[in-house]
Amino acid sequence: MKYNTQNAKIESITEKTLIVGIDVGSETHYARAFDWRNYEYSKKPLEFSNNEAGFVTFKVWMEELAEKYGKDVVIPGMEPTGHYWFNLGAYLQDNGMKPVHVNPHHVKKSKELDDNNPNKNDRKDPKTIAALVNEGRFSYPYIPTGVYAEIRSLSNLRLQAQEEITRIKNRIARWFSIYFPEIKDVYKNPGAVSGLMILKVAPLPKDIVKLGVDGVNQIWRDAKLRAAGLKRAKTLVTAAEHSIGSQEACDSARIELKILLNDYEIYHQREEELMELIEEKLSEVPYIDKLLEIKGIGMKT
User: Fold this and answer.
1) What percent of the chain has pLDDT over 70?
2) CA torsion, points 106, 110, 111, 114, in degrees to nearest 10?
3) Helix (H) or strand (E) holding 233
4) What is the pLDDT of residues 192-215, one digit of tens each?
5) Mind listing the pLDDT tens digit for each residue in 94-103?
6) SS3 73
7) What pLDDT band is residue 71 in, cutting at 50, 70 and 90?
8) N or C: at which end does the chain have fewer Cβ atoms within 10 angstroms?
9) How is the beta sheet containing 17-23 ordered, strand by strand?
10) Which overall architecture, per CATH, does domain 148-292 show?
11) Does domain 6-143 have CATH number 3.40.50.300?
């Protein structure tokens, strides 16, 4: 049986189901309660705060309505509005309920059915959300717990670090386009270790020319870098000698590149540290060794 089809979702809503539409906000939430025929039980929207006292008030309100009208199951529905629903969703799940999500686009399109007005308000949105739930137009969010919650949070932090690295790389590429466009003929990868090593000491083409082939090569030798030698050093210095890069604002250009390279190293190191933490947490997942035996499945996957 397919439990995630719209028909299966509609079938799960019976005369014993209490459907609660919740309009999620940053500080305050609003809720209205309905039965499977869209008959409303709440005389007015319940306003409750985004804190423990508010959640308890909301829970008691739902339990009283369920008891009063003989409902065995409560389905709380909400829009996944940014991160504001996280704490409420976790609270509902911890109290034996399965919160569901409705598509914000569907809410926007459906809300004008009652009054031909697409404008948002705290009274209309919970009703629209509850109606969409009643029609089976909802999804079940996955709210991880324990080690799985740790893995998800760490993975999100790693993705944020990767996004920052991409932004920094784009800014470095812009800097190269202005001050040293020829470097792309020497290094296809702007994050190459040997290239970054020289740019820290000699950011501008004229600084590299002043350093000379022997000076460039000596930096690599001191760092015991085997991947670069005299041939690469000559190519780099030649590119610098014939550079058409801007000669203006040299001091600020050096400072800008220094900042960018610094940020690049910080976020690159952060990404590696986060990946190490993720691997530690993954080791706690049951049968992880069996999962990793599957072809194409690695730690990052």
Assistant:
1) 94
2) -170
3) helix 230-241
4) 888 888 888 899 999 999 989 888
5) 998 999 999 8
6) strand
7) very high
8) N
9) 46-49, 28-34, 17-23, 73-78, 100-101
10) Orthogonal Bundle (1.10)
11) no
